[in-house]
Amino acid sequence: MILRSHHITALSALGLLLAGCGEASLPDIVARQAAKAVVRPIIVEKLPGVPPDLVTECIIDNATAAELTSLASDAATGVSPQTTETVVAIAGRPEAIECVTREGLPLILNG
Questions:
Q1: What stretches of the chain show up as alpha helix (H) in DSSP?
Q2: Residue 58 burial (CB < 10 Å; 0-12/13-18/19+)?
Q3: End-to-end CA distance of the chain, in Å?
Q4: Residue 30 and residue 8: Cα distance in Å, rounded?
Q5: Which of 33, 52, 71, 97 measures 20 to 30 Å from 1, CA to CA?
Q6: Could you give the CA distance from residue 71 to residue 34 in angstroms, rounded to a whole number?
Q7: How does DSSP classify residue 51?
Q8: How far apart are CA 45 and CA 63, in angstroms?
């Protein structure tokens, strides 16, 4: 997915609004939103049947700063095999699996 200039402008405006609401910086907010736009379709393709928004959040939350930057860049340049490898690697980390289990179990139980 390619972010067009109006998407980036909207994300920047959203970031400015949210900047005062927490500790996250504007670049972090924009990078996380761009990375989510790349990660979610990969999750839908590679992990069918799981809640894609939940898993995407867990992956973004467990990405390193360098991985987050790389994933955000891929929003502009396009998804590559390396992008998919990065997402799958993050998803396989114990912390990411724990996040999905912790956040997803109530969804399953309360179905």
A1: 5-19, 26-46, 52-61, 65-77, 81-91, 94-110
A2: buried
A3: 31
A4: 8
A5: 97
A6: 8
A7: -
A8: 19
48, amino acid identity: P
CA distance 104 to 22: 25
Q: What is the pLDDT along the chain (111 residues), one digit of tens a residue?
A: 454 544 444 444 444 444 444 567 888 899 999 999 999 999 999 988 888 999 999 999 999 999 999 999 999 999 999 999 999 999 999 999 999 999 877 766 676
Cβ atoms of 99 and 62 closer than 8 Å: yes
